[in-house]
Design brief:
Layout lengths: L2 E3 L8 H5 L5 E2 L14 E2 L19 E3 L9 H8 L3
Antiparallel strand pairs: 1-4, 2-3
The structure holds iron/sulfur cluster (2 copies).
One iron/sulfur cluster binds next to helix 1.
């Protein structure tokens, strides 16, 4: 299980600031930040703490089991960023 970022992410890094394991990328100090349309959660390193979920002003973060059906493709999209 992992958390997933879906449509609506504004790249404001509120989630990055609270993630205890630095598994949300790209951060703005990383080269891919400018071109990224959103941030992505690394499903391997995410520890499912849930800290990112309540701080997202865009309501763009879900536990993978709770991702709405219309955003189902984002589970793979987040994982692909790390492949
Ligand atoms: S807090 Fe939400 S809107 Fe902000 S970067 Fe994270 S996922 Fe995107
Ligand atoms: S659930 Fe926890 S570990 Fe996973 S991305 Fe959110 S803050 Fe990071």
């Amino acid at each position: 299980m992992a958390f997933v970022i879906v449509e609506g992410c504004t790249k404001d890094e509120k989630c990055v600031e609270v993630c205890p394991v630095d598994c949300i990328h790209p951060r703005k100090d990383e080269p891919k930040f400018a071109e990224a349309t959103q941030l992505y959660i690394d499903p391997v390193n995410c520890i499912d703490c849930g800290a990112c979920l309540p701080v997202c002003p865009a309501t763009a973060i879900f536990a993978d089991a709770d991702v709405p059906e219309n955003f189902a493709g984002y589970v793979e999209k987040n994982a692909q960023y790390y492949q």
